[in-house]
Amino acid sequence: MSIPGLADNLGSLLETAAARYGDKKALHFEYDDSSLTFRQIHENVNRYANALAGAGVKNHDHVAVMLPNIPDFPLVWLALARIGAVMVPLNIRYQPGDLEYVLNDSDASAVVIFSEFLPVLDKVRAKCPGIRTVFSIGESKGRAVTRLDEAARTSSDTFKGPQIGRDQLMNIQYTSGTTGFPKGCMLTHEYWLTLAWVTSQSSFTITGEDVFLSVQSFFYMDPQWQLAMALTIGCTMILARRYSASGFMPLVHRHNVTCSLAEAAQLIFGTPEKPDDGQHKLRFVLIFGFPSKLHKKFEERFNVAAREAYGMTEIGACTIVPLEDAHMTGSGSVGKPLPYRELRIVDDEGREVPPGTPGELLVKGPGLFKGYYKKKEATEAAFDGDWFHTGDLFIRDPDGYHYVAGRKKDMVRRAGENISCAEVEYILESHPKLLRVAVVPVPDDLTGEEVKAYVITREGESKDTIGPGEIIEYGLKHLAKFKVPRYIEYRDSFPMTPNMRVEKHKLIAEKQDLTVGSYDAKLNKWR
User: Fold this and answer.
1) Fold (topology level) of 10-159+166-243
2) pLDDT at 260
3) Distance CA 136, CA 111 (A)
4) Helices in 125-169 by DSSP H: which ranges?
5) DSSP character for 220?
6) Beta strand 487-490 with 448-457: parallel, antiparallel or unpaired?
7) What is the pLDDT of residues 334-363, one digit of tens each?
8) 153 φ/ψ angles, rounded to the nearest 5 degrees
9) pLDDT number for residue 203
10) What is the pLDDT of residues 413-429, one digit of tens each?
């Protein structure tokens, strides 16, 4: 089932937006302080489509794109959509090993790359035989590549492409995952069209009068759906050069921003309070994974409604706390289902659980991803018919609000006992001196695995004011003894995903022996 009235594809969405909104400002780029109207985006996209097609890029070709937040990036994305090609976004922080894996796994036949990143491509080019063509944006310094930006400038601003259906592949979007190599999520035109419609028709009712600040890198999914949303409703989108906590509010003031997706934790902890923090035109900000105990403080400091949401690459946006539900501030809830999203919370046998009982969240609806590229077994394991297994544990309360309770496989197996990392984190985070906790398993010869807690203290606190003994004692008061962490390590920050989940696999990968630098409660000493 598709949503009635969706465009046929992203290219036709752009054509309609250009005709409907014309000379209204659509995109502003902080990278070079330039702007494009809806009509100019359409004309420039056609130029890029002609340049790419003229160099041999065809319908269904896979094209990897490694660009910063420059104007060329969204233009290339939409140009590939016009051609019917598939974009494979590349993280600009990829090192040779990451780049080689994604280029080969995605079957990319061409690369569009910022000239500054050519040296890393040089290191793996010989190991990626599928790459036939390299396009550069910017001076290529004598390399045998095509200057795509120059070719586009001299190309026609009209383009006649193939017939493209909504179910045609548009992106292979790689997810970081929690273990092993990343998987490529197959995202169709319908995925982006659905996500744009659902987000614009949510309880926030974003309109053409809004100015949306997009702060993430365009190789992530969020700026892409935000651009599709802007084309759908005619609002203006500001694309930041990069995310900066100190630069967020200046951008809000400079562009009279009315809504954004904010990295709230960095905003409240990474910037000093200022007298004008609450003086702006922001109506709301979307937040993810923000400590519930600081939610109200954030809203009061910045004088803005902050609403939690939940989503992932495979399903797009899923739930959101309605704007009018101010009473949910600080509850920890990620809200209620967005339009055209059906949710079930089930036990290990697939039976739906009653309100208040944790279980795995399953999601159904139009525009979900089509599976993991070239990973049939992973795709089959992820779906039960039309229902997608998120792998996330959820609780639904009697009023229909949803709460993330952890990862289904986020467990420690200690001496035959299964311990939910989320439960231990929840209990320890209730300590008034602790801000955030991340629990991971540590291999042990005797017990199989031991529990380790990485902790971040609240402002003004430290391991001197809340020592490991106090943390252990607090755990013993609120948890079964076998669940209490053996190891405690203090941190200033955690590696985070774009939607503000702790990247535990990165914590685990930091050192070969996870006990080093930790307090060992069993031995009563630091290791």
Assistant:
1) Rossmann fold (3.40.50)
2) 96
3) 8
4) 148-153
5) S
6) parallel
7) 999 999 999 999 998 999 999 999 899 999
8) -60, -30
9) 67
10) 887 677 878 878 988 99
Residue ranges of the chain with per-residue pLDDT less than 50: 177-179
411-526 matches 261-407 in CATH topology: no
Domain ranges of the chain: 10-159+166-243, 261-407, 411-526
Q: What is the CA angle 304-308-313, rounded to 5?
A: 130
User: Residue 416: its pLDDT value, please?
Assistant: 64
User: Hey, what are 256's tokens?
Assistant: 């009279």
Give the per-residue pLDDT at 179: 44
First to last CA, the chain: 57
Residue 351 CB-density burial (10 A; 0-12 exposed, 13-18 middle, 19+ buried)? exposed
Q: Most distant CA pair in the chain: distance in Å?
A: 73
What's the one-letter identity of residue 491?
R
Residues 411-526: name the CATH superfamily: ANL, C-terminal domain (3.30.300.30)
Cα separation, 106 vs 84, in Å, equals 16
CB contact at 8 A, 284 and 304: yes
Residue 72 has phi, psi (to 5 degrees) of -60, -30
Euclidean distance between CA atoms 48 and 82, whole angstroms: 10
Q: What is the pLDDT of residue 8?
A: 95
Report how far residue 95's alpha carbon sits from residue 120's, in angstroms, rounded to the nearest whole number: 7
- Sequence-distant (6+) residues with CB within 8 A of 430 are 478
Joined tokens for residue 347: 């036990």
Give residue 265's pLDDT: 73
CATH fold label, 261-407:
Rossmann fold (3.40.50)
What is the rounded distance in angstroms from the CA atom of residue 314 to the CA atom of residue 235?
26
